[in-house]
Please model this.
Amino acid sequence: MAPAPLRRGTHRGDVVFRSLSLGFALSVIAIAGTIAVVLFRQSALARAAFGWRFLWTSSWDPVALRFGALPFIYGTLATTAIAIMIALPLGLGAAICLAELMPRRLADALTFLIELLVAVPSVVYGLVGVFILVPAMRSFETIVQPVLGSVPFFAGPAYGVGLLTASILLAVMIVPFIVAVSREVLLAVPQSQRDAALALGATRWETVRDVVIPYARSGILGSVFLALARALGETMAVTMVIGNRPEVSASLFAPAYTMAAVLANEFTEATDKVYLAALVEIGLVLFVITLGVNAIARVLIARVRRAPGAARP
Amino acid sequence: MTATYRRRRRVERLMFGATAAATVTTLGVLVFLLGYLAWQGASSLTWSFLTALPAPVGEPGGGMANAIVGSAKLLFVAALVGIPVGFLGGVYLAEYGRGAVADWVRYAADVLNGVPSIVIGITVYALVVIPVGHFSTLAGGLALGLMMIPVALRATEEFLRLVPDSLREAALALGAPRWVAIVRVVIPAASRGIATGLLLSLARVAGETAPLLFTALNNRFWSPGWSQPTASLPVMIFTYAIAPYEEWHQQAWAAGLVLLTLVLGTNVAARLLLRGGAIGSA
Model:
């Protein structure tokens, strides 16, 4: 019996299978491209009508068909920023505790639980937000008002819903991200770095503060950007507790609106073409912002993962 | 022991205490969230919730049977879209993906993964709902399927990469063509991990609400076939939670418990399964 010819890639099945899998892989590019194209083309009317002014004017008037996205952009950026300010210390603290202090098995088990929080659907966070957080915030605001009411940040009636409420709920939602990724990059810091600092007489905290965290800095920053990207695009939970009023207000207690929330609420009601195009343009702005934030996150995390000699593999 | 050293130790204890407090807070939120949901949900969860249609406003009772079936149908369509693309795309990346094309595919998957879910909803609305003229199970399932793709793709690629090259070489050395080696040897070796990854990608979209708002919409009745608006658990939770009726709030809690049980149950099961080793006998 003659041996089969040993030439690579000549088998017809190989060609078919390779092309098939390549086709499906390429469709991923096609899908991502389609989303960008659809957003761009469907928002053409609004872009033509309002130009760049769309980004910094704040009238949102579906009746007069005058649209400016500033209140939504402000709401999205403000809630995200406040959420990060709350979530970063909490998440980084927990990550340090889980990576540096606890016995490995216990830390793994607790990390498992915290990572489960990532899987909780946002509408469930919204549900808890509506019935627990909003009433709690309302009583908190009622107590705080007489004392701080004259400060612009805390002015206005106590609605319960508003910018701060949405930010706190967002913070709760993104802490698990920060914990999971930060712990991973902390564990990737070489043990020799810690040993060297300890040998020089540093306490364990000083080792963490002066050696471990600086070493893992870009990875921690990456986790923050990842959390940012999630917070920026978060829709349901925010829609349910932010109050949905398209105004830029200095007060943290005032109802506000975000880009994702206005899409969720108004998209199916937009009867006019320009109105619809304006909403799609908000989607486009949101898309571009998250794209940028995600890109930064990837670069930062990749930089740490490539570092050699990770500790305690 | 010098005073400086004692101060440094005090700072250490203080800071580590703070990190422990942060951990306890984070876990406390988890316990509170799950506990409160279980308590509220269990007290409103009845047999009729699982078997009856929504009751009209003001009438007690009723259920969300249509939303449960609707969610299942949506996930079925999502799987039909997401699994072939994610799985075969992942096979390409793991087994052939070394060139620039593969890098572009990975980049596109990252982009797709970062797209806010509501933006996916807009895209499907523009591409499917407007041309067809109505909301449907198919459109909603498509939106969820698109969201599944990057997760399914990455899981498949990662688990295939865990298969040792010696297995591939052994199959090729026995004279198997490359595609036979992949289909008969490499994929079966990673099948447990891949199946788990695909399941997790399905669990991820099971709780998604935003992409369904303008694709599947909602429905207070059964949705026959695949081309009509349909109810789903996440959208029902949203609608019922922000409505002003007390009975609806109770139903929303029950729906939340059912949804969270399904999603977290899948996650826990998948992780426990993987703990036994992603690569094992098929």
Observations:
- The CA atoms of residues 99 and 269 of chain B lie 36 Å apart.
- Chain B touches chain A through 92 residues (CB under 8 Å).
- The two ends of chain B are 61 Å apart (CA to CA).
